[in-house]
Design goal:
Shape: globular
Strand content: 5-15%
Oligomer: single chain
Radius of gyration: 13 Å
Order of helices and strands: EHHE
Number of strands: 2
Structural class: mainly alpha
Number of helices: 2
Distance between the termini: 24 Å
Largest sheet: 2 strands, antiparallel
Length: about 70
Amino acid sequence: MKEYAPLTDVESVLSILSQISFLGGVSDSERDQIFRRLEIGLFKKGEYVSRKGTCRRTFTLSRKGN
C-alpha cells in the first residue's frame, strides 16, 4: 500500500484548493480543518493513483511533477 505523509507546506496547495468550487464557501476555520487532514503521496510516472472498482475514502488532488 502506498505511504502518505502529512502535508506540511499548505501554501503549496492554496492555489489548487481555491479553484475547487465546492470549497468556495468554507470558512477559514473549516479550511484549516481540511488542511490538517491533507496528506502527500508521491507517485512515479506510470504508477496508478487509483484503479476503477476500488473504494477509497480519500479525495485526491494531483499535479504534474518535474
